[in-house]
Amino acid sequence: MEKFIDIADNKLNELKIERDRLRRIYPVDDGYFLEAKINKGKYYQLYKCKTMTGPGRNKVSRTFIKKSELSIAKQLAQKDFDIQLLKLLDNQIDVLEKMIEEYPIQSGEDIYKNQSDIRKSLIESKYEDKEKFTEAWKKSFMKKEKDLYDDKYPIETPYYTDNGEHVRSKSEKIIADKLEKEGIPYVYEPAHELNKTGIHPDFVVLNINTRKTFVYEHFGMMDRPEYAVAAIRKIEKYRKLGYEYGENFLYTFETGENGFDTMNLEMIINKYWNS
User: Fold this and answer.
1) What one-character DSSP code corresponds to residue 217?
2) What's the pLDDT tens digit per position in 190-242?
3) Neighbouring residues of 45: CB distance < 8 A, sequence distance ≥ 6
4) How far apart are CA 139 and CA 141, in angstroms?
5) pLDDT for res 1
6) What percent of the chain shows pLDDT beyond 70?
7) How many CA atoms lie less than 13 Å away from 85 in the CB half-sphere?
8) Where in the chain is the domain with CATH 3.40.1350.10?
9) DSSP class of 249
10) What are the CA-CA distances from residue 61 to residues 28, 36, 79, 109, 199 (Å)?
11) pLDDT digit string (tens) for 115-156?
């Protein structure tokens, strides 16, 4: 079922929890309500009221609330608000339940899958098969051959990812292995248009649900002044080229003393790549 329905279901459950809470507080409406009047435009007078039914017309019984009885006014005001809220929640729940019941179950992916192979080859759609899309996406960032950057900065560490990629640091191995474990497509040191500007990203990472690509950098050794200055300059260069944090660019830091904060990586994954 589509993500929209999941969101609607979650909202429906949230509304029902709030409605049930109020129903436990007010199983029966005792009929009392608060009335506030301004006396000669100077100060409020508060009354505990109840509509009295009987022959003829309904009458309202009013009892003046003294300043020493302000807690009564607060209880009545809270009750009036909660009863109004309860009616609203009932209405919202009714509308959501009907909408969920009537919402078409078929998705865009279903329609795409039902197309013939020849039609699929002619169609551009976000509903393209995820595996095929991911495969094409990875190929678009793969290096066809070693470039000058690889020759100038060869990798000389003992670290290899679970996918067999030779990486430049233990932290990059942790990142790559975590992405692989979470089923998030990535390419390490990709062939990218940024290469022409002198920037060589650590990773490109794909949110397969939105089909959005993020450039991801990990900055280690931030406790070394010369490295930190270079990292800040690199981030600024990214910004000038249109790469903003959270939009299409993400990064993490570490220092020699504190090491790599994997919890930060977890938060990034949950917010930007598992959504």
Assistant:
1) E
2) 999 999 999 999 999 999 988 899 999 999 989 899 999 999 999 999 999 99
3) 36, 37, 38, 39, 64
4) 5
5) 43
6) 97
7) 16
8) 142-273
9) E
10) 19, 14, 18, 62, 78
11) 888 887 788 777 777 888 899 899 999 987 777 888 888 999
Class in CATH terms, 142-273 = alpha beta
By C-alpha distance, which of 49, 51, 72, 76 is closest to 62?
Answer: 49
Q: Which two tokens stand for residue 56?
A: 């003829």
Q: Which two structure tokens, joined as six digits, stand for 9?
A: 């279901």
**Cα gap 122→52, rounded to integer Å:** 73
pLDDT in tens, 2-24: 577 888 999 999 999 999 999 99
Q: Phi and psi for 55 in degrees, rounded to 5?
A: -60, 145
* Cβ neighbours for 110, distance < 8 A, ≥ 6 positions apart: none
User: Please, where are the H alpha helices in the chain?
Assistant: 3-25, 70-102, 108-113, 117-122, 130-141, 148-152, 170-181, 225-240, 262-268
37 phi and psi angles, rounded to 5 deg? -125, 145
> Are 222 and 255 contacting, i.e. CB atoms less than 8 angstroms apart?
yes
What lies within 8 Å, CB to CB, of 22 at 6+ separation is 82, 85, 86, 89
